[in-house]
Amino acid sequence: MGGEEKSPMSTASGEPLPLPVSAIPDGCLPWSSEQARRWTQALPARWVPVRLRTSALVTVLLLAAGGAGLLAGYTALPAWVAALCALQLVWGAARPEAVRVSAPVVIALVLVYGGALPWAGALGLVLASALLWVTAELRLAARKRQREAARAATGGVTAGPPNARGPVPRGKLLGVVGCGLVVAGVVLVATAGLWDGEEGRWSAPVIGWYVVGLGVTVALSSALAHRRAAALRRAPVPVLRVLVRENSDVDAEVYAADDTAGLRPLFTVATAEVDEDSDQSDDPEADEKELAEFLDRLDDDTPGPLREAVLYGLPYDGAEVLLVGAAEEPDEPPVVERSTGPVRPLSDGFVRQWTAREKQTAVGEARQEELRLAAAAAVAAVPRDARPVPVRHWRAGWADRLFAALALLWCAVLVGGETGLWRYVPGVVGGVIAVFMLPNLLAWRVTADSTGLWISGLRRTRHVAWDHIRVVLAKGSSLKIDSHRASFDEWTVPSARWRWLERRAGLLHPHERTAAEIAAMWHEPSARPADESDERRRGRALWPLAVVVAVAWAAALVLLP
Questions:
Q1: Which of 407, 473, 463, 470 is nearest to 439 (CA)?
Q2: What is the total count of domains within the chain?
Q3: pTM of the model
Q4: In 3D, which of 495, 501, 467 has the Cα closest to residue 480?
Q5: Which of 84, 188, 425, 439 has the fewest CB atoms within 10 Å of its CB?
């Protein structure tokens, strides 16, 4: 799950799609709810981090980087020791296997370099490392209990996994990324003496060692994922009958075999079809339809149907598995899916939290839907009141500009008052992002005429015909328009949103109103403008504003203190 996680609790109607008997290994037992409950109860206490959102992991990375800088800048610790101490946060969240080794090493280093730290700082580092060590051991012990619970549920039944031959792709991309980070970090450390100013000379080594540590972390993840995935190729492996479906994040969501209502998901795991390239249809129209259905599911946050499946491998926090599930289309062979990410368990607390949140937001979402329908109805009613329908325009408003202001404020806080490497590296990266994002945030424009939509872009104004539109919606904090045509790249623009305030105040966000009005014209041809707009009314390319942003950003980075 990427970005915010969606609720696993919404269910699809109907009985689970059956898996052919020929795809079920002899003696394979169903994973009952009672046995699955023992598996979930094996998880560690709620305060032990097991399932972190992407936003939380990014926060941990930033906090660790800041901690490394503080330790290197305000103590006499060597840069590599400061980076190692800070990396404990990252490993505690993502790689508990590493903490088992690194925590005692960090404690020993703090004792060795104790003179470089105030006593309070040394004590804090020792206690923090000890706490992370404990949480890592609790998490690893929980994995062992989960493996034992899953093994007991199999009744000792094993089977050879399908498609066991061929290369194991899992982890290869991570390995390349990890090596790249290690090389980048080594370069920073090696060139530390070339930076101007005292701050640049001491900050480059600590940043470099921190990046090296991140590279080692990614490489370790690559090696573990590859080894665990390769172990599934060694027949035989434990098997269980389960139910599975594709959730709104396009991850596999696994349920007990008797949970036919899909009430209690056990874990999620990112998957990909095995040998799906060789199974593709020779009919381009069929492939295009399948892709459209896949994209529509992503846009609508609609989970797929429950399907019977066989789970190969013992599931636990961080495990690699293989699934053989019923196909969603009738008369299609079973689908073989390998994990492309680790198993991520769903605790009872997590499920209860989502259930309570859904109940709290149900009434507000219903009110929001009423406002969206009212906006769409107002547009659809225009042709009956006034003909012809004039050309319509939608453009950036207060929500977009507020988002841009908040982003600029965050960048100013990040680099303001800094010098050397700490100023120019994030400053240049932020500047590149600003050049591409700010013009669209501040001056986006969508024009509707008889031929379709004209959308302002950085280089030119793009056009999508009414019949070629695939989706128009406000998803999350972004307004999105996409086409069936591959030549049209998806257009999105983010904005500031506070959904709880919108629901409480009964307000409709500008992006929601825009999406509702455009979608009404898309679905109702009589509501579309009768005239064709000229070039002047379609808006202009935004690149001149991008040039202004680039010049202003560079001047601020160089001239302002």
A1: 407
A2: 1
A3: 0.74
A4: 495
A5: 425
- Work out the number of other CB atoms within 10 angstroms of the CB of residue 489: 11
Q: Collapsing DSSP states into helix, strand and coil, what is residue 260?
A: coil
Region 137-163 average pLDDT: 93
| Cβ atoms 317, 50 nearer than 8 A | yes
Contact (CB, 8 A) for 244 and 309: yes
Spatial CA neighbour of 318 closest among 391, 229, 258, 382: 229
pLDDT on residue 504: 77
With a CB cutoff of 8 Å and minimum separation 6, the contacts of 339 are 170, 229, 269, 270, 271, 319, 320, 321, 322
Residue with tokens 């009613």: 381
For 229-239, how does the pLDDT look when each residue is reduced to its tens digit (9 = 90+)?
A: 988 887 799 99
Evaluate whether 414 touches 484 at the Cβ level (below 8 Å): no
Neighbours of 103 (CB within 10 A): 24
| Alpha carbons 462 and 464: distance in angstroms, whole number | 7
Q: Which residues pair with 309 in a beta bridge?
A: 242, 325
What the block records as the tokens of 160 is 């050879």
Residue 404 structural domain: 364-559
d(CA 268, CA 251): 6
Q: Which two tokens stand for residue 197?
A: 């100013």
Q: How far is CA 540 from the centre of its chain?
A: 33
Give the number of other Cβ atoms within 10 Å of residue 33's Cβ. 15
In this structure, is residue 540 part of a structural domain? yes
Return d(Cα 63, Cα 561) in angstroms, integer: 24
Contact 158, 27 (CB under 8 A): no
Tokens, residue 150: 């899953």
Q: Which residues pair with 483 in a beta bridge?
A: 469
Q: What are 101's two structure tokens?
A: 């080794």
**CA distances in angstroms from 266 to 19, 356, 539, listed in the order given:** 20, 18, 50
Query: For the chain, first and last CA: distance in Å?
Result: 40
Q: Tokens 């560690």 belong to which residue?
A: 44
- Reply yes or no: is the peptide bond before residue 167 cis, omega within 30 of 0: no
Between vectors from CA 104 to CA 99 and to CA 105, what angle results, nearest 5°?
95
The answer to whether residue 496 sits within a structural domain is: yes
Collapse the DSSP code of 275 into the 3-class scheme (helix H, G, I; strand E, B; otherwise coil) and give the result: coil
For residues 418 and 254, give the distance between their C-alpha atoms in angstroms, rounded to a whole number: 48
Query: In this structure, which long-range contacts are made by residues 137-141, counting pairs with CB atoms below 8 Å and at least 24 apart in sequence?
Result: 137/96, 137/100, 138/44, 138/45, 138/48, 139/44, 139/48, 139/49, 139/50, 139/96, 139/317, 140/96, 140/97, 140/100, 141/44
β-strand partners of 491:
481
pLDDT per position as a tens digit, 340-359? 999 999 988 877 777 776 66
**Token pair recorded at residue 407:** 């982003």
Query: How far apart are alpha carbons 247 and 32 in whole angstroms?
Result: 21
Question: Is position 393 within any domain?
Answer: yes
